[in-house]
Amino acid sequence: MIIYGDVLAAVNFTVTLFILQLCGRILGVRPGRVGKYLSAALGAVASFIIFVPIRSVIWQLLYRLAVSVFLVGVAFPSLSRRKFLRAIGVFYFVSILFAGVTMLLIWLRPGLGFYTANGVVYYNIPPLLLLVCIAAAYGAVALFDRFTALRTPRRDIYRITIERRGRTVPVLALADSGNRLIEPFSGLPVLVVNAAEIWGLLDAEERRVVRENDTETALPGLRWVLAGTVNGSGLLPAFRPDRMYVVINGKRAELGGYIAAAQAGIGNGDYSGVFHPKMIQVLL
């Protein structure tokens, strides 16, 4: 089989980008805007190992493991160690699912075929069929995502414990799938909370910045995220706490992401924060 380098690179770039997007959907964390394209480009470059004669199966496995860890690390740079390991597992799950769908379509259409070496697959299939494979795999993952979403307890309001710099505060927050706010650099989801509820987690200068909405002052660890509502949009100061967790059915579940302080009132008195349910589902 003749292998064309440009086709090899283009296919692996597209497939890697697709896999990373689906991983983010399952994890509830969007890959970084720049990181996902850089990771996909690295995946395309890594595919050229197909031309290198490596006979050792162990070296092939080590190379594939190293590449997958590197790709996930570039696409999701802000994950904790535990979530990073889970992201690696999800990356392999989606990759195997895509390979399975592709193999099925190749089996249904004899004469197409593929070539594999050093863990890299070169698909000898038309571009349109490749898009069909991607669409089919995306549909399968979407169904899986919908099924696993049922594991999240049917509860609207959660008591979230937030820890930062040795201080701890509890916050009642509403799980709202419509809240898709993310921190743009890391792609991590954001819990929006009334500023008064987390006042004890901030130092004097941070309180001033939040109170005055001072976007000009740069403070370590403080980010600004663009939040939109039915009343308009604006920048909210956000920070990443040392820890966030909820207790569900006697088990502690970690939340990953940022906290944004809102001056306008959130909730009707029953809760004071809003977050996307995926922030909990990540580790359930």
Query: Which percent range describes the beta-strand content?
Result: 15-25%
Radius of gyration, CA atoms, in whole angstroms: 22 Å
H/E series, N to C?
A: HHHHEEHEEEHEEEEEEH
What overall form do the CA principal axes indicate? elongated
Give the biggest beta sheet.
9 strands, mixed
Structural class label:
alpha+beta
Cα distance spanning the termini: 45 Å
Order of strands in the sheet with most strands:
6-7-10-5-11-4-3-8-9
Question: Can you count the beta strands?
Answer: 11
Query: Which regions are unreliable across 5 or more consecutive residues at pLDDT < 50?
Result: 150-154
Helix content: 40-55%
Quaternary status: single chain
Describe this structure in words.
The protein has 284 residues and is an alpha+beta fold. It is built from seven helices and eleven strands. The strands form two sheets. A nine-stranded mixed β-sheet has the order 6-7-10-5-11-4-3-8-9. Strands 1-2 form a two-stranded antiparallel sheet. α1 packs parallel to α5, α3 (57-75) packs across α4 (81-108) and α4 packs across α5 (127-149). The termini are far apart. The model is unreliable at 150-154 (pLDDT under 50).
